[in-house]
Design goal:
238 residues, alpha/beta, 6-stranded parallel β-sheet, 3-stranded parallel β-sheet
């Protein structure tokens, strides 16, 4: 079941789809590219939200506006949660996990890695019993020192890569490294619109080892949400 783990399809929630028509067009593109399950992950910035409850209500309204019209009916609700000071202490943060699973997508700040970020990640995992998925991990190569990037890779997390990782040499090498080290990896389009940031599953399907894609799809199994760890991908394919 080809699964998009990171995208911004819900209308009017963030800097993604700005209306229902855009959302439905994005989903139609995903269907044409073979996507069978979508995890909608609108941004959650704690410092910008009046409350977690209000965010969840807005998310539900956005979802209901497309639920009966979407070309891909299997849409699961989650969030892309920005890591901020104290984020792990928000009451009910587990409600931002992908529904009916114990996985939560976190986005780190785009500046050098600091110890407090590890502390927040670890607290979310240990205090709330959640498995962290780190969003577009390859993007942080441009911000973190090699030493701090190693700290990031030492976290017990799932690493999410955007599909365009195959266009960039250094980022593709990171993917290969994590695959060879048996890290858990999932893919997402991080799609925001139908133009400059449109769904790009055709790119992944063309360039990625099918076994790697299958392992990504199976992280959240359709029935029991069990975790499957893949074998290292064929380096020629990556």
């Amino acid at each position: 079941m080809l699964t998009d783990y990171h995208c911004h399809i819900l209308p009017g929630m963030d800097d993604g789809a700005f209306d229902v028509d855009t959302s439905l067009s994005m989903i139609e593109i995903m269907k044409e590219q073979g996507v069978e399950r979508i995890i909608a992950t609108p941004h959650f910035y704690a410092h910008e939200e009046r409350s977690l409850t209000e965010y969840l209500i807005r998310r539900e309204i956005a979802y209901e506006s497309i639920a009966d019209l979407a070309a891909v009916p299997d849409i699961m609700l989650g969030a892309e949660v920005a890591v901020e000071h104290g984020i792990s202490m928000i009451h009910g943060i587990d409600r931002l996990a992908v529904e009916d699973t114990g996985f939560i997508l976190l986005e780190l700040p785009f500046r050098d890695f600091e110890d407090w970020m590890s502390e927040e990640i670890n607290a979310i995992a240990s205090d709330h019993g959640l498995t962290v998925i780190l969003a577009h991990v390859h993007r942080y190569l441009a911000y973190y020192t090699p030493e701090n990037f190693e700290k990031l890779l030492e976290t017990d997390a799932v690493f999410q890569f955007n599909n365009e990782v195959f266009l960039m040499d250094r980022e593709r090498e990171l993917l290969r490294q994590l695959a060879e080290n048996k890290k858990r990896i999932v893919f997402g389009s991080d799609a925001h619109n139908t133009g400059t940031r449109r769904p790009n599953w055709d790119m992944l399907l063309e360039k990625c080892d099918p076994e790697m894609i299958e392992a990504s799809n199976d992280l959240i199994a359709p029935a029991d949400n069990t975790i499957e760890v893949f074998t290292a991908c064929d380096t020629a394919s990556v």
